[in-house]
Each structure stands twice: as structure tokens, then as C-alpha cells.
């Protein structure tokens, strides 16, 4: 099975210049806590609700602060044609809960998350990976 078979394709994307208030509002409205940040269709970072609180708000940033100041720029990602087992190993080894997925042209095409795995994958190695990802450091 390839990761493209289970990834979410309908992904909300932030732009580097979007305000942290705008991004937080979109997260609240959609009931999610993670967004890839892209320029066009090129991944440049990710931002979580925790990034917005810990990096931005706790640091005194105003609501108009661009999300580029709160985002993570060193992002782990995988290709859409990779075997699910390899992607699960990456997520497990690095304890990653959400992973951007790129195509062969480095365009953002989806995200795979713990939710995708728990709902769509019933295989033994998926359960083991979920356990490893959730394990405290």
C-alpha cells in the first residue's frame, strides 16, 4: 500500500504572510491543530496550534504577526509513492503525528496523520507505529 492511498488530500494550507490570528481562526473553525505552510504549491514549513501559542503569543507577538515567524521550517516529509510501511517507520522513529506528503515535483499533495492511520489502516504494523508515535520521550 502506498501512502497516497490513505493520506488526506483536502488539506488546509497557510501562506507565510497569513496572520497568526487568521491561521488560528481557520484551525478553530476546522477543528484541527496543524497546517502545512506553502508558497504556491511548495512546502516551506508547518505550523501547529502549539507553535502559535508557545512561539508567537507567549513571545509577545501581535495578532497580525505573519505565520512565518511562528512556523517550523525544518520539516520532515515523504513522497506520495512511498510504501506505507516506510512512512509509518519514519513517523514512529521520529514520533511525528502529522506528515506532509509531496509528489515527484515537490508539490504538496496531502498530509498523513495519526487519524488517517487509525481510521484507514488495520494492519499490525500500523498499530505498532501508532503506539511508538504516542510514546512519551
TrEMBL record:
CBS domain location is: 7-65, 71-130
A Pfam family recorded for this sequence: CBS
Alphabetized, the UniProt keywords read:
CBS domain
Q: Which domain of life does the protein's organism represent?
A: Bacteria
The protein's matches in InterPro entries, at most eight in alphabetical order, are given as: CBS_dom, CBS_dom_sf, Diverse_CBS-Domain
Q: Which PANTHER family match?
A: CBS DOMAIN-CONTAINING PROTEIN (PTHR43080:SF2), CBS DOMAIN-CONTAINING PROTEIN CBSX3, MITOCHONDRIAL (PTHR43080)
Query: What protein name is recorded for this chain?
Result: CBS domain protein
| Species assigned in the record | Brevundimonas abyssalis TAR-001
Q: What is the lineage of its organism?
A: Bacteria, Pseudomonadati, Pseudomonadota, Alphaproteobacteria, Caulobacterales
